[in-house]
Amino acid sequence: MDPSIDPMSGRPALTPELAQEIAQDIGRITGFNVLITDPGAVVIGCGDLARVGTVHEASLEVVRTGRPATHTAEQAGRMRGVRPGMSLPITVGEEVIGTVCLTGVPAEVHRFGLVVRRQTEILLEEAALLRSRLLHERAVDDFVRDIALYDPEVVDAGAVDARAVELGLAPGPARAAVLLEVSPADEGAAAVSRITVLRTVREVFRDRQDVAGVQAAGRYVVLAAAHGERTAPGRLADACGHLLSLLYDRHGLDGRMAVGEPGAGTTGMHHSYRDAATALRTGPAVFPGDRVFTAADLRIPHLLGSAPRQSRARFADAVLGELPGQPDWPTLRETLIGWAEGGFHLVRVAERLHIHRNTLLYRLEKIGKLSGRQVREPAQAIEMYLACLTDILQESATQDKVR
Asked: Residue ranges of the CdaR GGDEF-like domain (predicted)?
């Protein structure tokens, strides 16, 4: 429960922490000593900390009548804990929830009384609104983490679906998980708050059925509603590219993103998240230099990556033989990948690799001699292509372990 919200009425509550903050802020602005009491006339906020916890007797009548009152030195002397000045009721709706009092000559403080009272009520309402927003942000963060960590053996999907409804999300539409990882582009750059990053994220993913939250430091999750034009291939990826440009230009942040396949309900969104997380992990190895990765483009590496590490290693060793030991192995591997993805078409593959057709023929012949395989036979070439992707994944995993 938000401490600035009364649990019974749902209205802003005047807590001691908030009262002390308001008393000090208004005191600095006006130059007067400001005192705030609860409905029982107990001081809960004051520029003079020695008065906190004492009783301000004049406030009892102000709370009872709901009307301001001034106190001369003579009147104050007859009451407990009261100094010359003015006391005003703090009201929320029609309820008096406390008083705000200014110490000074009544004629002088009277001019500021109504302004101070209204400012106190505004600060109280703003504090309650801010805390309410923070609670909402926390609920959103908890929800995206629930989706990321969902385990049907432990958590009931219906409970997570219910939380989505509480956040204003319709349960029907499919959503695609979009993952964002960011870090400062320059070492020593000023840190950027999560709220600032989220504000930019929500500017791009602004559909009413989108939800964006923080999963961990530097890692954000968007559950983007997949409907209308967004179902077109590449549309969400284009939005990711635009977001990364904004984050760099406005906040000096480098980043990379991944998009999962849309899924409905808790289970579907969790699968989308898992796909996006895998794409974010394997994408940079398979497509170095790219910043946006889609699960749809990484299905084969995803499938290879799901195999046990030792099984992958044995497969790559059996198919590639001595090729990985060659000084020009990165070039030969790039050639094998381009050969398969270019449809085994000499001219098209040469253009894809930006080399002459004769250079491609020379490389294919060299690969065939070193491996003892028929590279121009599609079945064997596909096997070598998969082994090359496996080798890339193995290499990336080794580098990650070293880091």
From this structure: 156-282
Which segments in the chain show pLDDT lower than 50?
1-5, 7-10, 402
- Nearest alpha carbon to residue 214 among 109, 137, 156, 310: 137
What's the order of all strands across the beta sheet hosting 292-294? 211-216, 219-225, 175-184, 253-259, 292-294
Residue at 277: amino acid letter: A
Q: From the CA atom positions of the chain, what is the Rg in Å? A: 33
Helix axes 16-30, 106-148, angle to 10 degrees: 130
351 and 287 both lie in a single domain: no
Model pTM score: 0.66
| The pLDDT of residue 3 | 45
Q: Are the C-beta atoms of residues 202 and 210 closer than 8 Å to each other?
A: yes
Q: CATH number for the domain including 30? A: 3.30.450.40
For residue 184, give the 3-state DSSP assignment.
strand
Rounded to whole angstroms, the Cα distance separating 20 from 18 reads 5
Count the helices and strands in the chain (H runs, E runs): 14, 10
Instruction: List the structure tokens of 130.
Output: 């801010």
Question: Which residues share a beta bridge with 40?
Answer: none
pLDDT value for 11: 54
Q: Which helix (H) or strand (E) holds 387?
A: helix 378-402
Look at residue 94 and tell me if it is in a domain: yes
Q: Any alpha helices (H) in 209-356, and if so which ranges? A: 235-251, 265-286, 299-305, 309-320, 329-341, 346-353
Complete DSSP assignment for 269-291 = HHHHHHHHHHHHHHHHHHSTT-S
Residues 6+ apart with CB under 8 A from 381: 336, 339, 340, 344, 375
Helix (H, G, I), strand (E, B) or coil at 36: strand
Q: CA 219 to CA 180: how far, in whole Å?
A: 6
- With H, G, I as helix, E, B as strand and everything else as coil, classify residue 334: helix
- In this structure, how many other beta carbons lie within 10 angstroms of the beta carbon of residue 394? 18
Task: From 399, 391, 382, 402, select the one nearest 304 (Cα to Cα).
Answer: 391
| Whether 42 and 123 share a structural domain | yes
Q: How far apart are CA 14 and CA 369, in angstroms?
A: 82
Contacts of 26 (CB under 8 A, 6+ apart): 34, 100, 116, 119, 120, 123
